[in-house]
Amino acid sequence: MCDLIESQPPEKISKMKKLRRTLSESFSRIALKKEDSSFDEICVTKMSTRNCPGMDSVIKPLDTIPEDKKVRVQRTQSTFDPFEKPATQVKRVHSENNACINFKSSSSGKESPKVRRHSSPSSPTSPKFGKADSYEKLEKLGEGSYATVYKGKSKVNGKLVALKVIRLQEEEGTPFTAIREASLLKGLKHANIVLLHDIIHTKETLTLVFEYVHTDLCQYMDKHPGGLHPDNVKLFLFQLLRGLSYIHQRYILHRDLKPQNLLISDTGELKLADFGLARAKSVPSHTYSNEVVTLWYRPPDVLLGSTEYSTCLDMWGVGCIFVEMIQGVAAFPGMKDIQDQLERIFLVLGTPNEDTWPGVYSLPHFKPERFTLYSSKNLRQAWNKLSYVNHAEDLASKLLQCFPKNRLSAPAALNHEYFSDLPPRLWELTDMSSVFTVPNVRLQPEVGESMRAFGKNNSYGKSLSNSKH
Fold first, then answer.
1. Any idea which residues carry the catalytic annotation?
2. Higher-confidence residue: 124 or 106?
3. Which of 170, 187, 290, 455 has the lowest CB atom count within 10 Å?
């Protein structure tokens, strides 16, 4: 080749050298591009088998990768630590069910110190989360058909907790309500929803570790009979709607709203608790059990056998609790059975028909001849204290609608005129921020007793008992 080049005129030699240089550079770029593409494909070999979005589902087996590439793959994958803060060398791309992980390693063969696994500062014998011996039982708070609740203390950080100890039966396994409650609460982080700290599983028990909250709304109302301070009713209701709006936006129904399941802290923070009957609306089946919600707070559509319902199920309970806080007595305290409960509802809201409630005649348990014909009344005729507070009767009437689709949603209720005198900053809070972080927002002393006069037990135990109402 050298002889051939030397025999050519100088002009041709110059042109050939330029052409060869251009071709060499082009081939180099192609080779680099191919190598980078191959490397990117190799780096996601492990996770791409799960059909990550944007990735080819057919990946070359590791054995077919050249030896020099294998070294790069192994070193890069070893830098992944789920417990470390993201390093600059690591980029995570999340999909719905799994994480597709692309790694960008440095060209050097050494592992970056930024992505090394850190050793735990605690000793092997120190208490850790997820262990049964990490919590000390202080006193028993209550016992139900499948669980016992204790007030406890964490040996890890010294904080008070509520330990819901669920007994496991060999024949029956873990109660589905416990599984449902744990799975739902793990993903719910909100100031007005009880926080699930830890889950401990042994052969005999499943223990759910909750934040400890001082009392519940039922006990609070028992301590202050005759109706609560109007300003406190407003703050409690705002917090209840705030928590419900959060879960409803995530397609979750609570399905068991009652004062016993609304915890109240010593500062007045209200928290939704006991998600044992909660359901995600996104499950394939569109029908649900009608044996949900304590009788006094159960909506008429469910009482009449409807199994197709949505967030409006919870909103009826909100209306009942709202009236009870203001009036000091339960809105519809049925004493006998479902028939009696429905009669009490129709006495105030009127007996429904196809005009006022389209489709009511098709409900399984609605027989017109079984019910007395009542005309609807103004709510203040049944609960006179609603007239003492501006816009309270209007809000209650929009929540207590027999026809489910007419009930106000949680976000709409939060924007009702009833709350118009609250500080605007309350609507700007982040999910985990308490309403009491806003200046001048605080509970008022109830008539006759101060806010600190709580009972020592809370509703973690009480809500487990088989209450008739």
1. 256
2. 124
3. 170
